[in-house]
Amino acid sequence: MHRNQCNAVTVWVTSLDTRSERKFDLHVTVESLKNKFELITGIPPQNQRITLHNSESDPDPVAVLEDDSRPIGFYGVRDWQMLKVTDLNPSVSFTGQLTDVSQVDKFELSEDAYAQRQDTVLAYKQRNKIGRFAATEAPVPKPTPQVNVPIGSRCQVETAEEDFHKRGTVRFVGPTKFGYGEGIWVGIEYDEPIGKNDGSVQGERYFTCKPNFGVFVRPDRVEVGDFPVEDIDFSDEEM
Q1: What are phi and psi of 121, to 5 degrees?
Q2: Bridge partners of 37?
Q3: Which label site among 134, 191, 230, 231 has the fewest CB atoms less than 10 Å from its CB?
Q4: For the domain that residue 55 is a member of, what is the CATH number?
Q5: How many CB atoms are located within 10 Å of the residue 47 CB?
Q6: Strand, coil or helix: 56
Q7: Total structural domains in the chain?
Q8: Which residues form the CAP-Gly domain (predicted)?
């Protein structure tokens, strides 16, 4: 198996003021990661405490990335886990102040008084029949594109590496719930453990296979045909 097939992970990065989806190389050190996180969260590297969680709803960390010299792969970071960045000295970076409105003076207006005014957004929407005041129309369902990739067929996935064929069997074709955007995805069970999952993503199962044998790709990267199983040459330096 080629090393660079599984060297990157997509994770959620959260702090008190930020939340974003990011992709990192597993060989990047914790020290380098902190420098990247400063640009994302505004927290200086020396004030960061990075914890690894299985999900955003999991309060208990599975690991603490406390050794700056270690690569993040040392801590077993996987796709769609969460890296939480805690500010150990918020007085320096003003963490939380961007979202703290407790000190802002509030102008309060009752609902009845607001409804009587003619210079408000509500009045404008009522006059122009915008938003909830617009005439209700039945939503037009989006057509599902036709994809000629039969389930159970042998296939080969497009790859930029010369003489390296990622072959397998089509196990799923259809829309998904994970965060790659709309459209049709093809779930493939590879012949070798060069995939990213076991047929499930973010707790939703689309098909079943062994861990690291499953992958989801766009249909335009899949070529269906008579592709026999190939033996992949594992060199002594590759695991």
Answers
A1: -65, -40
A2: none
A3: 231
A4: 3.10.20.90
A5: 18
A6: coil
A7: 2
A8: 176-218
Contact 72, 28 (CB under 8 A): yes
Q: Which of 205, 231, 228 is nearest to 216 (CA)?
A: 205
- Distance between CA 86 and CA 48 in Å, rounded? 6
> Does the predicted model carry a pTM greater than 0.70?
no
Q: Which residues pair with 174 in a beta bridge?
A: 185
Q: How far apart are the first and last CA of the chain?
A: 7
Dump pLDDT digits (tens) for 154-200.
999 988 777 778 999 999 999 998 865 578 999 999 999 999 999 99
Whether residue 110 is contained in a domain is answered as no
**Which of 21-35, 144-158, 177-191, 223-237 has the weakest average pLDDT?**
223-237
* Upper half-sphere CA count for residue 199 (Cβ side, 13 Å): 14
Half-sphere exposure of 8 (CA within 13 A, CB side): 6
Does residue 124 lie within any of the structural domains? no
pLDDT in tens, 69-91: 999 999 999 999 999 999 999 88
Is 89 found in the same domain as 18? yes
